[in-house]
């Protein structure tokens, strides 16, 4: 199954966040607990870790770019070769993640 | 132009000015190891050391008193007051000492301090969310600044940190989550200069701080109804940029003054009278918070403070023919 990671809307609609770091590159495998990326809000650093195994397939933002709640940041799949949705499509399922806030 | 968080614009301005002026030091609650209530002093302790980045107790009168005394003795100080509400505890050294020192000493002494405080409603309730900046406009000798975005905060704070007298620099809780653009190279914004954020011909909306953001949203909505509003962001509450205000008022003939604070003796009251003195035929309305304390409930907070619908409604009322008769 192909899954997406979306910046959570609970952060608030008006807020913008900055992508600091990709911990994996496209094509790399994540195990449960592996860090996916780190972003920064106006107050905190947020490390996003996968809580299920997945392969990172697509990154839609670069390090240093600004993102808003609701933005899809990445597509991931359970298996490496799974076909991705077309340009118009988007995965329906969210990747299960943990947020580590400092 | 680089995009930064609001707090980063403040940090950069402070760091640049501390580098330029070795006599400048900072004091406030949790500004050293903790990096400030909004992380706006993060990294400054490591860079400039504990003698220049000083934590204070929860004692606002002492904080501003120390800042003003040190400044009178030849240093320069920036004092951090977490919420504008808490400035009430530090008003005596600010109003009775710092603001008057130059006059009392026939120009022999001065208190070059910047007092930064955060105003505005964002769920903190009656005593942590007030916008009482209008009170400060009443004090001779005080400069009062209230930027609405990261770029202005950067340029105005730098100017404030070089100013000769006490400056109160007021930001807003809702500005911190927003990204904004700052100039690549050092750039100062003069005190007493308002900014025209949007041009229009039917009426002028005047606001400051976060209300400028709301006023721009209201102007977009008015535009969809065929009303083109000019939006002026005051940036400086004292001194007032009458030239920019009057030029726009003469152009549109209608001025709606909007603020988050109280209407009674508010920023709008002062501006309305000053504008009427200069342009007697002007049609003016003002809009501010209902005569209630700021509520902690988000529903009641939104009820108390003007939002886009209230501004749009007041603009329509000001422009309606019946209002002119």
Report on the architecture of this protein.
The complex is a heterodimer of chains A (102) and B (325). Chain A is an all-beta fold and 102 residues long. Chain A has one domain (2-83, 91-101): RNA polymerase II/Efflux pump adaptor protein, barrel-sandwich hybrid domain (OB fold (Dihydrolipoamide Acetyltransferase, E2P)), CATH 2.40.50. Chain A is built from no helices and 10 strands. The radius of gyration of chain A is 13 Å and the shape is globular. The N and C termini of chain A lie far apart (31 Å). Chain B has 2 domains: 3-181, 3-Layer(aba) Sandwich (Rossmann fold); 195-324, Rossmann fold (3-Layer(aba) Sandwich). Helix content of chain B is 37%, strand content 22%.
Overall tally of domains of chain A: 1
Oligomer: heterodimer
Q: What's the arrangement of strands in the largest beta sheet of chain A?
A: 3-6-8-1-9
| CATH 2nd-level architecture of chain A | Beta Barrel
* Termini separation of chain A: 31 Å
Query: What is the count of helical runs of chain B?
Result: 12
Quickly describe the structure.
The complex is a heterodimer of chains A (102) and B (325). By secondary structure, chain A is mostly beta strands. Helices cover 0% and strands 45% of the residues of chain A.
Write the layout of secondary structure elements.
The complex is a heterodimer of chains A (102) and B (325).
Chain A: E1 2-6, E2 17-22, E3 29-30, E4 35-40, E5 45-50, E6 54-59, E7 66-67, E8 72-77, E9 93-94, E10 97-101
Parallel strand pairs in A: 1-9
Antiparallel strand pairs in A: 1-8, 2-4, 2-7, 3-6, 4-5, 5-10, 6-8
Chain B: E1 3-5, H1 6-20, E2 24-28, H2 44-48, E3 53-55, H3 60-72, E4 76-83, H4 91-98, H5 101-104, E5 113-119, H6 133-137, E6 143-145, H7 150-162, E7 167-172, E8 179-181, E9 195-198, E10 203-207, H8 210-224, E11 229-233, E12 236-238, H9 242-252, E13 254-262, H10 267-278, E14 283-289, H11 298-304, H12 308-319
Parallel strand pairs in B: 2-3, 2-4, 4-5, 5-7, 6-7, 10-11, 10-13, 13-14
Antiparallel strand pairs in B: 1-8, 6-12, 9-11
Helix pairs in contact in B: 1-7, 3-4, 8-12
